[in-house]
TrEMBL record:
Residues 29-317 form the Protein kinase domain. It comes from the Eukaryota. GO terms for biological process: G1/S transition of mitotic cell cycle; regulation of G2/M transition of mitotic cell cycle; regulation of gene expression; signal transduction. SUPFAM superfamilies: Protein kinase-like (PK-like) (SSF56112). Keywords: ATP-binding, Kinase, Nucleotide-binding, Serine/threonine-protein kinase, Transferase. The keyword Nucleotide-binding applies. InterPro entries: CDK (IPR050108), Kinase-like_dom_sf (IPR011009), Prot_kinase_dom (IPR000719), Ser/Thr_kinase_AS (IPR008271). SMART domains: S_TKc (SM00220). This is Cyclin-dependent kinase 2 homolog. GO terms for cellular component: cyclin-dependent protein kinase holoenzyme complex; cytoplasm; nucleus. The keyword ATP-binding applies. May form a complex composed of at least the catalytic subunit CRK2 and a cyclin. Belongs to the protein kinase superfamily. CMGC Ser/Thr protein kinase family. CDC2/CDKX subfamily.
Length: 329
């Protein structure tokens, strides 16, 4: 059953300058430590004086005359609309004249850290863990949102192996593709998890849908199974060629519109499809349907990728009651 998002009120704090942000937050929160910094701003671990809960406070500067940046607006809108057990919870939004502070559920680590530090042997929780990610994506898609930056760093994990999707700063409401719709930005999704259409489309022709999230999910599943990044490219062309080396260089037979894409080249090297055998050789978790599921997600043609909802019933996840749990999404 889909959860109904309660309206979230942005509270404006009585501060006049950015330097007073810490003082204003200090009325309610005790700063414990800074846990992350990036282009978006800073994330701090804080304790709520009222509830006693330890939370994550994400601080972003206001870059526009109109107020909130598109990054903050997207994140607030998406998190408010997409409340779900497998999506990080937004507790509060605090506004200052020069910054905005998102009070979020705190989780101890992300999936990348968990895979690198915590896993000593085969990922025994591969199916239930991936199922949680998938259920979160299903809910976001049902609410009309594309995440557009799914990767292990944006999936949080707690001590009980509960997984939650975070970082919705690039999220966007999905609009059906039609000839009259203008292009949308192609500069989304971290390179290693970026669908080939995002790499190959010229920015003037860039129209895509929720399939970009499915491609990212396929990359994440492969990484969870092998503890190795699937397409570790150091540039767009390097990433593209790594995709071709695994799946074969696409042709008009395998991807009918390939020659219409802005960055298509007839001079590409010709690689043959490995049918994911090279991935399975590195796999720490063997299952006869894993290759099939990866293939169903990592299709060149976006429309041929299974939807997130359809993947819930995939036979890779079907055993040991996985299908019954999937119906709860």
């Amino acid at each position: 059953m889909a959860l109904v998002a309660e309206p979230l009120v942005m509270r404006e704090l009585p501060c006049k300058v950015e330097d007073e942000a810490v003082e204003c937050l200090g009325d309610r929160y005790v700063h414990m430590e800074t846990i992350a910094e990036g282009n978006y701003g800073q994330v701090a671990k804080m304790k709520d004086k009222v509830t006693g809960k330890v939370v994550a406070v994400k601080t972003s500067s206001l870059h526009t005359e109109e107020g909130l940046s598109s990054y903050s607006l997207r994140e607030i809108s998406a998190l408010t609309a997409c409340r779900h057990p497998n999506v990080v919870q937004l507790h509060d939004v605090l506004a200052l004249p020069n910054s905005v502070h998102l009070v979020l559920e705190l989780m101890p680590c992300n999936l990348m850290e968990y895979m690198r530090k915590e896993l000593k042997g085969p990922f025994e929780y591969l199916k239930p863990a991936f199922l949680q990610i998938l259920k979160g994506v299903v809910h976001c898609h049902r609410q009309g949102y594309m995440h557009r930056d799914l990767k292990p760093q944006n999936i949080l994990v707690d001590a009980n192996c509960n997984l939650k999707i975070t970082d919705f700063g690039l999220a966007r409401r999905f609009q059906p593709l039609h000839p009259g719709r203008g292009p949308i930005t192609k500069y989304v999704v971290t390179l290693w998890y970026r669908a080939p259409e995002l790499i190959l489309m010229h920015r003037t022709q860039c129209m895509y849908g929720q399939g970009v999230d499915i491609w990212s999910l396929g990359c994440i599943l492969a990484e969870m199974a092998t503890n190795s990044v699937l397409f570790r490219g150091d540039s767009e062309i390097d990433t593209l060629f790594r995709i071709f080396q695994l799946k074969g260089t696409p042709t008009v037979e395998t991807w009918p519109i390939i020659e219409q894409l802005g960055y298509f080249s007839k001079n590409w090297p010709r690689w043959k499809d490995t049918h994911f055998e090279t991935v399975l050789e590195k796999c720490r978790y063997t299952h006869e349907y894993l290759k099939e599921m990866l293939s169903d997600m990592l299709q060149f043609v976006p429309e041929q990728r299974w939807s997130a909802h359809a993947l819930l019933a995939h036979r890779f996840l079907r055993e040991q009651g996985a299908t019954d749990r999937a119906t709860e999404a």
